[in-house]
């Protein structure tokens, strides 16, 4: 086993070195070591990939589809993505020039930011939100501007956005991250709320990177993409991980204006060359012949959501009904005098329930905890029994 030579121990990237790991993963792995704990930490669907989608991946291997695909992904998959976005969300993208297939939505986020940011540029990040936006901006030399949205019901209002842009300097703000349906809150922007953002951004020299990976998981209404209202300044991020339970297949995509996609594709080509072939064939099958696959999953998620929110509010953990995704985001009562990390640790150690502390999702998340209801109903019900007992003892 090699030991790092002392002469290179300090030869590190000074931007990355002080960063911690993803707190979501850190707590998930830490709690997994506690015997008997019910883990409700990761956004990992407990469903299996649909059989016809798995068969498509297997068939591609049998047919020796083992050579490099186009760097942007197979054209047939990009055509399937284009058709899917048109059918589901009335969005028009040229599969040849306006779509890139990426290694999950995470790579799509990285490539998109890399195509925009120069050192010192600012990116507005409404919090609480998906935790990886902040370190990616820092790695690329940008400045993340965290904006706490809790007082506005987890919504970045047009008024608040304008105030932040003016305070930070319109010439320095190059992008805003928008995540909806939201992780960890389940918040979904209405058409009116999206229009407020459009009205602010339309005369600014900035993009909005709209991460809509949970677009198929909305409850009671159909998802409206920001790209429908502002196609020329929206960079759309999506993928198959959540809609078809394909997290391990690592297929995401970027859709946007041609000139932007050309720049983002440079970073994509430099870092990954091209996505995996079997995963691409599976994704194509899912989008062409499995467009209704998420419906059954969504119905089950909604049943879990309704049960969870009722239980949490009954126990005194103020929880707004999520309109999308598969998370609840609950307020920790002030009377317990525990921050979110202390609460999560105590609940895991004493109550044997694993949740994610709210601070993992940025400054706006402190004082809350996230539960993923991508777990089974059996596990969720057992976790609520344990949480009630734990709460009674606090």
UniProtKB/TrEMBL annotation:
According to the UniProt entry, its GO molecular function terms are:
pyridoxal phosphate binding; transaminase activity
Output the superkingdom of the source species: Bacteria
- Which keywords annotate this record? Aminotransferase, Pyridoxal phosphate, Transferase
Report the cofactors.
pyridoxal 5'-phosphate
Q: Which Pfam families match?
A: Aminotran_1_2
Ranges where the Aminotransferase class I/classII large domain occurs: 37-387
**E.C. number(s) listed in UniProt:** 2.6.1.-
PROSITE patterns from the UniProt entry:
AA_TRANSFER_CLASS_1 (PS00105)
One Gene Ontology term of the biological-process aspect is: amino acid metabolic process
Q: Which CDD domains match?
A: AAT_like
Homology family: Belongs to the class-I pyridoxal-phosphate-dependent aminotransferase family.
Q: What is this protein called?
A: Aminotransferase
Record the organism: Companilactobacillus heilongjiangensis
């Amino acid at each position: 086993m090699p030991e790092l030579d002392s002469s290179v121990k300090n030869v590190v990237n000074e931007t990355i070195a002080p960063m911690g790991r993803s707190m979501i993963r850190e707590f998930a792995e830490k709690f997994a070591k506690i015997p008997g704990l019910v883990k409700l930490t990761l956004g990992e669907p407990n469903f299996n990939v649909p059989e016809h989608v798995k068969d498509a991946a297997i068939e591609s291997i049998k047919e020796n589809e083992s050579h490099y695909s186009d760097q942007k992904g197979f054209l047939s998959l990009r055509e399937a993505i284009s058709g899917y976005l048109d059918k589901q969300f009335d969005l028009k993208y040229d599969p040849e020039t306006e779509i890139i297939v990426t290694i999950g939505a995470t790579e799509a986020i990285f490539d998109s930011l890399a195509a925009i940011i120069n050192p010192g540029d600012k990116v507005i990040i409404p919090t609480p939100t998906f935790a990886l936006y902040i370190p990616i901006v820092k790695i690329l030399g940008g400045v993340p501007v965290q904006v706490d949205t809790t007082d506005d019901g987890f919504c970045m209002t047009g008024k608040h956005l304008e105030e932040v842009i003016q305070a930070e300097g319109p010439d320095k703000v190059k992008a805003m991250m928008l995540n909806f349906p939201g992780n960890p809150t389940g918040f979904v922007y209405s058409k009116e709320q999206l229009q407020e953002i459009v009205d602010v951004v339309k005369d600014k020299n900035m993009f909005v990177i709209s991460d809509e990976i949970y677009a198929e998981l909305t409850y009671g209404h159909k998802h409206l993409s920001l790209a429908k209202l502002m196609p020329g300044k929206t960079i759309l991020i999506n993928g198959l991980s959540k809609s078809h339970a394909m997290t391990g297949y690592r297929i995401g995509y970027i859709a946007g204006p041609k000139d932007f996609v050309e720049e983002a594709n440079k970073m994509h080509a430099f870092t990954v060359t091209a996505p995996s072939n079997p995963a691409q064939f599976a994704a194509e099958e899912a989008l062409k012949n499995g467009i209704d696959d998420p419906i059954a999953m969504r119905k089950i998620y909604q049943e879990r959501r309704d049960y969870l929110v009722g239980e949490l509010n009954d126990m005194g953990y103020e929880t707004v009904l999520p309109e999308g995704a598969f998370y609840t985001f609950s307020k920790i009562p002030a009377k317990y005098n525990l921050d979110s990390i202390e609460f999560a640790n105590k609940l895991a150690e004493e109550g044997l329930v694993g949740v994610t502390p709210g601070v993992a999702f940025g400054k706006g998340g402190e004082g809350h905890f996230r539960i993923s209801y991508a777990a089974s109903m059996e596990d969720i019900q057992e976790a609520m029994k344990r949480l009630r007992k734990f709460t009674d003892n606090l």
